[in-house]
Every structure is written in structure tokens, then in C-alpha cells.
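Researcher: Let's continue the batch. This sequence belongs to Secreted protein, and it's 90 residues. Same format as the previous ones, please.
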Amino acid sequence: MGRSLILFDLVLLDRPLCCHPLTSLIFQCENGHIACSSCCVMLMSNKWTSCTLPVGIYRCRILERLVEAVFLPCRNAKHGCPENSLMANS
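Model: Same format as before. Here are the C-alpha cells for Secreted protein:
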């Protein structure tokens, strides 16, 4: 049975390089630093500057599945809108 998650602190799923929400495909270096496929090309030689390990080789499939399962509250939730949408569709 599938489970759903509503996440209100969306900063947790921001990409560290550009601060936009994560999208599939998500890659990681051996230290666990993450980048989506569009951010991998922004890295000099596809390496993290902080640890100099290559990123773009290893997929982070669990984080990809998490992103696909997260429901986002409507932008108007603070005004009472109860609607939610899948993060993967945003």
C-alpha cells in the first residue's frame, strides 16, 4: 500500500546549488551531497567544491521516490485552501 506525505517545510527538498525544488533524476556523491540532473552540469567538472568527489554517477533513488510521494499544499493554504498536489507534478 502506498503512503503519502504532506510536507510544509519545503526548504528540506531544495537543491543546494540553485535552491529550487528537487526534481528527478537525483544524483549523489560518495559523501551523500545531492544534485539533480540539471544542477550536475553547473558543477565544475561534475565535482562538489566542498569534498571534490564526483557527482552524477550514483543515483539517489530513495530521495527520488520521496520527491514523487510528497504532496505540496496549495500556495493559498495560508488563506484556507485545502488543495494539495504531487511535488513531482509541480
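Researcher: Any comment?
Model: The chain has a mean pLDDT of 76.
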